[in-house]
């Protein structure tokens, strides 16, 4: 299986194929701490990262922001005291794409670096 961490996002357009149920369950094994959720009728990936204070939660938020700009794929981020909620999905598709799994894996790698 190709490691998600070693991959790069492809540009998002509405014509990309969404991830199939089979792909979703395969990719999911590489990002076990992420939850599949349905919001606004769309499948999304969500993880809550814990931090000891607001400053480190904010620093992590900024690191995810830099990753998003570098890859051209952007999450929803909720920064609170002691936690950051990261949600990935592909707006252009109103669904999950391979890109979202790559970004979830890269988010986990940033969380490991920062700790
Ligand atoms: C033009 C630009 O690349 C697109 O609007 C990108 C920006 N970032 C994006 N991020 C996410 N998560 N989904 C998208 O569909 C998306 N589209």
Automatic annotation (TrEMBL):
<protein>
    <recommendedName>
        <fullName>Putative pterin-4-alpha-carbinolamine dehydratase</fullName>
        <ecNumber>4.2.1.96</ecNumber>
    </recommendedName>
</protein>
<dbReference type="InterPro" id="IPR001533">
    <property type="entry name" value="Pterin_deHydtase"/>
</dbReference>
<dbReference type="Pfam" id="PF01329">
    <property type="entry name" value="Pterin_4a"/>
</dbReference>
<keyword id="KW-0456">Lyase</keyword>
<comment type="similarity">
    <text>Belongs to the pterin-4-alpha-carbinolamine dehydratase family.</text>
</comment>
<dbReference type="InterPro" id="IPR036428">
    <property type="entry name" value="PCD_sf"/>
</dbReference>
<dbReference type="InterPro" id="IPR050376">
    <property type="entry name" value="Pterin-4-alpha-carb_dehyd"/>
</dbReference>
<dbReference type="GO" id="GO:0006729">
    <property type="term" value="P:tetrahydrobiopterin biosynthetic process"/>
</dbReference>
<dbReference type="GO" id="GO:0008124">
    <property type="term" value="F:4-alpha-hydroxytetrahydrobiopterin dehydratase activity"/>
</dbReference>
């Amino acid at each position: 299986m190709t490691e998600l961490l070693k991959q790069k996002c492809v540009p998002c357009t509405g014509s990309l194929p969404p991830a199939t149920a089979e792909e979703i369950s395969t990719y999911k094994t590489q990002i076990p701490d992420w939850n599949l959720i349905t919001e606004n009728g769309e499948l999304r990936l969500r993880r809550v990262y814990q931090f000891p204070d607001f400053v480190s939660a904010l620093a992590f938020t900024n690191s995810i922001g830099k990753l998003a700009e570098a890859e051209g794929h952007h999450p929803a981020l909720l920064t609170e005291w002691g936690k950051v909620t990261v949600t990935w999905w592909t707006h252009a598709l109103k669904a999950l794409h391979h890109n979202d799994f790559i970004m979830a894996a890269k988010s986990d790698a940033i969380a490991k670096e920062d700790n």
